[in-house]
Amino acid sequence: MDLKRGGSMRRSNPLVATMFFIVLLFLYAPLGYLILQTFLNNPNDLQSGFTLNWIIKLFHSPSVWDPLITSLEIGILSASLALMVGTLGAVGLVDFAAFLPAAVQSLIMLPILLPEVITGLSLLLFFLLLKVELGFTTVVIAHASFSASFVYFIMLEQLKKLDPQMAEAAEDLGATSNQIFWRVTMPNIIPGMMGGWLLAFTLSFDDFLISFFTSGAGLTTLPLKIYSLMRIGITPELNGLSFLMICISTFLVLVLVSKEQSRKWVLKG
Known about the structure:
single chain, mainly alpha, MetI-like fold, 2 domains, 0% strand
């Protein structure tokens, strides 16, 4: 009874509620203001009235669609490559994860902890050492190299949740190792694979620094396009591009959340 009263007191604490809304305001007020500017006749005048002209102009601008399509293509390919690498790594190391030295675990986590500017510079130097021409392929490999670590830890947790008795039962019934993986393990880790792929795609789609170092000349992703527009000043087209990225990223987050919620409902029956 005391625990219930304590929980209700915490939920109704006005100080906690106020701090929560202050944090939300701090996080989302800049995004809200940017979205508001997208629909103003004059982005610098809040009383200029609302319009859809900037959005219409954005959708009729080929200089916007080319970087958007490039970012989508890079995101799809790099997320698929990261999913393959991260999943294979997790499957291979899940039985030894508890016994791996801390140094090995830190090496796997290193791409997550390193600043992106260091990761981008190291990848650039590596490609130059191999005399690989910078372009579409190098950006895909670069994005996959740092997002694979995120996929690895997602898949590792997904594999740890599996009941080992399922594999043992399949082995007792005469299934080979390949059959156990494809018919028992794989169907049960598909939700985690979907989540890992979506996360890797989002990281790739929003990335600027690593793309900046590894894209070379002639390749422009959507974040690089926004950066190039910023160099000539804040324009309504720039606001519209930023709004477009917010919409796509929000959609991906909603898909990921709905997928996870659906999985919980299925598990609860």
